[in-house]
Specification:
The structure holds two protein chains of two kinds.
Chain A (H helix, E strand, L loop, with lengths): L4 E3 L2 E4 L5 E6 L6 E7 L5 E8 L2 E4 L8 E4 L6 E5 L8 E8 L10 E2 L3 E5 L1
Parallel strand pairs in A: 2-11
Antiparallel strand pairs in A: 1-3, 3-8, 4-5, 4-9, 5-6, 7-8, 9-10, 9-11
Chain B lengths: L3 E2 L4 E5 L4 E7 L6 E7 L6 E7 L4 E4 L2 E6 L4 E6 L8 E9 L3 E4 L3 E6 L1
Parallel strand pairs in B: 2-11
Antiparallel strand pairs in B: 1-3, 3-8, 4-5, 4-9, 6-7, 7-8, 9-10, 9-11
Classes of the chains: A mainly beta, B mainly beta.
Amino acid sequence: EAGVTQFPSHSVIEKGQTVTLRCDPISGHDNLYWYRRVMGKEIKFLLHFVKESKQDESGMPNNRFLAERTGGTYSTLKVQPAELEDSGVYFCASSLLGGKNTGELFFGEGSRLTVL
Amino acid sequence: DQQVKQNSPSLSVQEGRISILNCDYTNSMFDYFLWYKKYPAEGPTFLISISSIKDKNEDGRFTVFLNKSAKHLSLHIVPSQPGDSAVYFCAARERGQNFVFGPGTRLSVLP
């Protein structure tokens, strides 16, 4: 069974440009999360989808960030326009919903974003 | 304002000895706690968890202890192995599955 996959693994862009990160969760996982780790600090929550609905987007830093999950399958996270402080590793994670949910998140390998 | 704190950024332990990683939290609404391990250039992987109704959970060489009154949990690894060298994240879940992570502790197990 395929795990959580993220693309691209690394993106280098200029300040002001746009980047779109993609996440494919484990098949059948209704919960999808985006997290960010900046400069080796804590892994910070950005938002949570349940199927195609945004359950919690309290961690989104500002309106330059837009996350979508059309059809409740894969998700994209767009940063437009990118700023220097957006640099970091963006992790996507997924988990089951309901009685089988032990609380375990399955993480992807992350997309490293470098804004110059 | 960090709700989950790991005050030791790094820890070095001799192979075969016990590794103790600590985590403190401030939110009394957390009901589920997890430890994740992360190798370089990889995503975090789930290691072990504990519910707030328990004070200990053991899985092989890994044991997690929870002290609710002190809002403190710890991960014990015994015996430590070089392959355990990684960054360990403590995480806590509020109701509604919103996970909060600590900043991580880098464990180095020396051969």
